[in-house]
Amino acid sequence: MKLKITLLLASFLLAAPARAWNDTGHMAIAAIAWQQFDQPMRDKVAAHMKALPLLDDLRADLLRDVTGDANADTFMLLATWPDAIRPRGKLASKYLPEGVEPNTHWHYINLPLLRPGDPTWVEKEKDLKPAEPNALTALTVQSQVLAKAKDVPTKESAVALCWIEHLTGDVHQPLHCVALLFAEEFVPPEGDQGGNGINTTEGKLHHVWDLALGDRGKSATEAIKIAERIMKEHPARDFGDLVKSDPKTWAEESYKLDKDFVYSLLPAEGSIKHNRVTLTPEYRKQMTEVAEKRAALAGYRLAERIRKALSAEERQ
């Protein structure tokens, strides 16, 4: 058993890929961020967007509809680009620029969470560290890439913008910041793969959370509607200085939600992997409320992060 645990700990450098908010969710978060920019900042962001290879083709292939504001539509669409270039994506070979990796391991950070009452991993908990690179390290690096090229847009800065948009959303999806560990069912390095190993009456738990902001595909008009409703319910002023916090804080918030709420529907004892848990109306209602608040924060924080990277006064 000791040898097995040692080998599993060593393999913590490897992790299974996971998806985050679906396209609708990522686009809604980007829409919230876009609304925070003044026109000069929108112009700066647009200059970097236009440096992305095959941008016009990307818009034609992926956007389900448009709003009439081409730059806003593009900014929303680019939040989905890191999912579009995944190796198994239909358009990955077309839209993955030469020399750019899909980096599927950037989409999450595996913060280990032990199931209460299970002693299996208690003694090893201090040795369970998230592998790098991960969502947080990638966000830091890509922010630096954008800041370095702030006045001279490049392919690299355009790709960095896509990643910043997407990863900011990812880190605010609670199940992208956790790896639940339980006995021999969910073991390091990936644990339950952020809820992908948990079956519910409505599909995998991770997938249920992905859909919490809606499921309208890459629709710019629908993303705008969702964003406007969320901003009305959760204006930036309600969050104060939290908007200016760093990604580590974002991940810690998501992890706390995992501990306090996301996994609360699991049975107190017995197998998790081989059972299907029921999503109650109460759980669904609270999940939607949590997801929309996280999306609001993600949008405001995304705007702040991009603004900082492209500002003349500050460089990340």
3D structure, described in words:
- The protein is mainly α and 316 residues long.
- Helices cover 49% and strands 4% of the residues.
- It is built from 13 helices and five strands.
- The protein has a three-stranded mixed β-sheet with strand order 4-3-5.
- The radius of gyration is 19 Å and the shape is globular.
- The termini are far apart.
- 45% of the residues are buried.
The N- to C-terminal Cα distance equals 45 Å
Number of helices: 13
Spatial sequence of strands, sheet with the most strands: 4-3-5
Low-confidence parts lasting 5 or more residues at pLDDT below 50?
A: 1-17
Question: Helix coverage percent of residues?
Answer: 40-55%
Task: Name the average pLDDT.
Answer: 90
Cα-based radius of gyration, to the nearest Å: 19 Å
